[in-house]
Specification:
GO terms for molecular function: ATP binding. This protein is of the alpha/beta class. The protein has helices at about 25-35, 55-65, 80-90, 120-135, 155-170, 180-190, 210-220, 230-240, 245-260, 270-295, 300-310, 315-325, 325-340, 360-369; strands spanning about 45, 70-75, 100, 110-115, 140-145, 175-180, 200-205, 225, 265-270, 315, 345, 350-355. The structure holds adenosine-5'-triphosphate and magnesium ion (MG).
Length: about 375
């Protein structure tokens, strides 16, 4: 018998075999859709650190809406967010006042719209209303927006304004926004979008270890691969309940077993688990940190690498010195990195990493360069 395919998914935005510990959120959302316009969970804010499962949560909520035959539009925040939403939502984007169609180079059927900023809230509303008209009775429109921390504030304001009007008119719509915790809390405190304070806030954190253990057991044994209780405990503990780590440990212990097997006894042994944990730890930084680093200018990365030489918060003066730059120069990068929530300033003259495992990740980079 060949070893079954690896069920674990240690990849950003890919559904895990079991979505652990998120039942309540799914129930709240389902109820929100079923209860009709005005239900609080039709406006949801999902906040959580990197790798906590925001993107897969949005995918799950999308599925829930689709099961009710809702129309779903997903977007990821970046420049032009509002225009992309209008293009996606409108059944025919060309008909809206203020929306100019950009000729599409790809020859796509509809092309993209480009809307004057002041007209975005009303154009978005028109687009939503037009879409709702094409949907059957009781069928609504769900809009999900991921990576809200990368949104332009004017786009957020436009979307929130449009959403507020739709709710006021009792339209059959729902909105879910997901982003990093700091940004979600800033958003809630911002005066421009007080409407968002009404949102149902869901904080994604670590999941209970009992549930992790149970999901490992069912995912593994359910595929007729054996694992004993001690091995199961060891694997569970190593995850610390962190969703991305759960997939990493699962994936690498499965792989360790498959590679060792003389392909008769399908079993994940304690040895496989320990090997898997080592592999998982080595990759943790990659998954969470590489996407952050890849988007930064070289000198900003140098700033972070200078910080990584310390075991705890770094002195800004020392970082500048290590970079061979003046304080003024280094501080430009300090400000940018703080703004991007990659580092924070725990006290005057100090900086610290705001992303788990980033220090360790940079050290492995320094060691290999
Ligand atoms: N509830 C969960 N149970 C088990 N695994 C999960 C759960 N949520 C997410 N995962 C797994 O964790 C990893 C990260 O998930 P996801 O990409 O959704 O996180 P994220 O919060 O969107 O991260 P980022 O901020 O980097 O975009 C994926 O491998 C996913 O399969
Ligand atoms: Mg994500």
């Amino acid at each position: 018998m060949t070893f079954p395919a690896n069920p674990f998914k240690p990849t950003a935005g890919v559904m895990p075999p079991v979505l652990i510990g998120r039942d309540m959120i799914c129930e709240d959302f389902s109820e929100g859709l079923d209860d009709g316009p005005g239900a609080p969970d039709r406006l949801m804010l999902i906040s959580g650190p990197r790798g906590s499962g925001k993107t897969v949560m949005l995918i799950e909520l999308r599925t829930i809406a689709e099961q009710r035959h809702w129309h779903v539009v997903d977007e990821t925040a970046s420049e032009g967010l509002c225009d992309r939403l209008i293009t996606q939502i409108a059944p025919d984007p060309g008909i809206f006042a203020g929306a100019t169609i950009k000729p599409s180079l790809m020859g796509a059927s509809l092309g993209e719209v480009s809307t004057a900023p002041a007209l975005r809230p009303s154009t978005l509303r028109d687009a939503m209303n037009a879409r709702l008209k094409t949907l059957g009775k009781n069928k609504g429109l769900l809009v999900t927006i991921d990576e809200i921390q990368d949104a332009d504030p004017s786009d957020i304001t436009a979307i929130a304004t449009a959403a507020q009007h739709m709710f006021r008119e009792n339209a059959n719509v729902a909105f879910v926004f997901a982003g990093l915790p700091q940004v979600i809390s800033d958003l809630l405190n911002a005066n421009v979008v007080t409407f968002l304070r009404r949102a149902s806030l869901k904080k994604l954190g670590d999941v209970p270890l009992d549930d992790v253990r149970e999901s490992f057991a069912s995912t593994i044994r359910g595929r007729n691969v054996a694992i004993d209780d001690a091995a199961l405990d060891e694997a569970t503990q190593a995850t610390e309940g962190y969703p991305y780590m759960i997939q990493l440990v699962g994936y690498h212990m499965w792989r360790a077993s498959r590679r060792r097997q003389s392909n008769t006894a399908d079993e994940i042994t304690m040895r496989d688990v320990r090997e898997g944990i080592i592999q998982a730890r080595a990759r943790l930084g990659e998954g969470v940190c590489a996407p952050v680093i890849d988007n930064l200018p070289e000198r900003a990365v140098d700033y972070l690498k200078a910080m990584a030489e310390d075991d705890d918060p770094s002195s800004t003066a020392q970082v500048a010195e290590r970079m061979n730059e003046t304080m003024d120069y280094a501080n430009q990068y300090r400000a940018k990195l703080i703004e991007k929530k990659i580092i924070n300033a725990p006290e005057r003259g100090k900086v610290d990493f705001a992303i788990p495992y980033l220090r360790e990740y940079l050290r492995t980079q320094l060691a290999s360069s």
